[in-house]
Structure to design on (684 residues):
């Protein structure tokens, strides 16, 4: 049984939910699930700096969907956008690549942007905030081994600055939520997604991109590239499972707790490549290749996994999509997309 | 022997050094040491939001000192202030109390302010940045036990949001330095001060303030208050030692490394109170009292210490001022100050 603090559950039927950073993989899938759950309105907020109109193209003519162009750095826009909202899903964030390439914008959005959104929610008495965090709060480098459970520390030895900046920015985002809870009673839940992948995947997530890169090589008849010895661990989670977790978080009465959202089990790079080869029906042999200098990876190659038992206890969620099924869906979507483009 | 990366040492004789957040305990003492070391000019930058003119009153008529009112959130002011500077000591920061009471300003100064200063240093080709960090990068709560050495992770379980925000903001500041080093070759050193105390102490540092509070009670004839069982550990460092460390950091050729700056040894709360009682020649018995709810402390009471061996190896520094001597200096200063006021 969970010992999570109890706030108020949100009855999604007839409610209004805003998604910040909505023109995205997780945003678009979550909007689909919220509409299925009977919400009255979904507001899709994005500044379209990275989010693409394509990601939400299937939603734009839905009468229950409203697309709002807004920027997390402009508090007044957030106050206007959250007026009348029952819940807010805060997805908007820069990741490690962003902290490397555009560190000013990344600092803005991940720290001040989160603070602005919480302030807007306070002003408009938004009942529940679901804050998208990341397993980056456990850090990177040689310390990342074994189970990365919710009470664990943040490791950084041997990691590049951009990765540490990203992780620390997510720690700050989580703590700003806690601060608004303690100061103003704001109900919130933090979901720490592991590496999200799936249909409508964008091209900023370095780890998720690897599935696509492998697929592209195999289809060109090139051998897939296996960094290191292929035993590097990754722990993905399919976007369908993440969308279900977001909905479950809104529906849960739990508050003031952070939980991991990860796939059924971790996968090694070798297994991942084999799943793509199997999907393609290819017999190509993977090519083992050391990472180029400066490559940013979650770990230094240690075996780790991200337990999601707490999410089971707190919001009654567990992942349903296996890596094999998730890769099938992703690559089938990719093929359908290309067929349409031809 | 150190394996620290080597940049260029700064010849302080004839050099120009800017101190950001200069109207402060550490700032004023470091300015004194820099002037002794023969610098041509010390620029004392402060926005005087917390810094007080009193802290630098003894310096204001020195022809080698220039006081500049400037704000870390205004990049153009930092670019103007760092023009022609050889070195920058970046002290300006909000601490845990600031992240609790004024979290917007704290986020601004500790994250964006550090980024602004690094950018100004890049623009003006400042040779060396010494960035004041904190043992807060090891975090708080139940994880803080034993030696807090430089490779250790950031703990946060059981800690209040403001403390975690402060620690994470310092992690970000350090990593922004590393990023400027990697991207632009900026020479820098990070000094992680433990709890600084000493003459001209200000009233924002919750832990250092305890010495003064104890002294005030004893002089009023009240029993000093001992939180918990008096075995709570604190690891102070005297401001004279910190000022020497800052000077040593400028003079060192080492770059791109973070090191602890801590006093000779940790002290328990019980020992600390006894030192104050001894100084006052008092036989009052300490009163044991549990902390009020919401009290912010570095640890949950575990025994810990902060080794400073790396600073010995990298910049040839070790602390000289014992807790007994440091308390004597602090309280003698306090008495002299009050005598002047009468």
């Amino acid at each position: 049984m969970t010992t999570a603090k109890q706030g108020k559950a949100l009855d999604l039927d007839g409610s209004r939910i805003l998604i910040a950073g909505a023109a995205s993989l997780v945003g678009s899938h979550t909007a689909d699930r919220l509409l299925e759950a009977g919400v009255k309105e979904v507001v899709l907020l994005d500044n379209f700096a990275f989010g693409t109109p394509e990601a939400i193209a299937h939603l734009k003519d839905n009468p229950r969907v409203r697309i709002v162009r807004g920027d997390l750095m402009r508090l007044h826009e957030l106050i206007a956008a959250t007026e009348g909202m029952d819940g807010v899903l805060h997805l908007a964030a820069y990741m490690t690549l962003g902290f490397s390439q555009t560190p000013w914008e990344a600092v803005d959005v991940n720290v001040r942007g989160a603070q602005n959104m919480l302030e807007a929610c306070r002003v408009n008495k938004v009942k529940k905030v679901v804050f998208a965090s990341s397993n980056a709060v456990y850090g990177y480098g040689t310390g990342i081994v074994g189970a990365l459970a919710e009470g664990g520390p943040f490791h950084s030895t041997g990691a590049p600055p951009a990765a540490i900046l990203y992780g620390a920015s997510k720690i700050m985002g989580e703590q700003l939520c806690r601060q608004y809870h303690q100061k103003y009673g704001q109900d919130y839940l933090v979901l720490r997604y592991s590496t999200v992948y799936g249909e409508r995947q964008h091209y900023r997530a370095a780890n998720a991109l690897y599935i696509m890169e492998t697929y592209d090589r195999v289809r060109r008849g090139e051998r897939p590239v296996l960094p290191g010895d292929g035993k590097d661990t990754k722990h993905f989670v399919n976007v369908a499972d993440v969308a279900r977790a977001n909905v479950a978080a809104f529906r849960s009465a739990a508050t003031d707790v952070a939980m991991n959202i990860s796939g059924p089990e971790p996968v090694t790079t070798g297994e991942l490549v084999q799943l793509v080869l199997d999907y393609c029906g290819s017999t190509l042999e993977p090519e083992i290749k050391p990472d180029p200098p400066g490559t940013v990876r979650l770990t230094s190659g240690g075996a780790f996994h991200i337990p999601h038992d707490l999410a089971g206890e707190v919001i009654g969620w567990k992942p349903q999509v296996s890596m094999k099924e998730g890769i099938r869906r992703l690559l089938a979507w990719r093929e359908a997309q290309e067929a349409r483009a031809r």
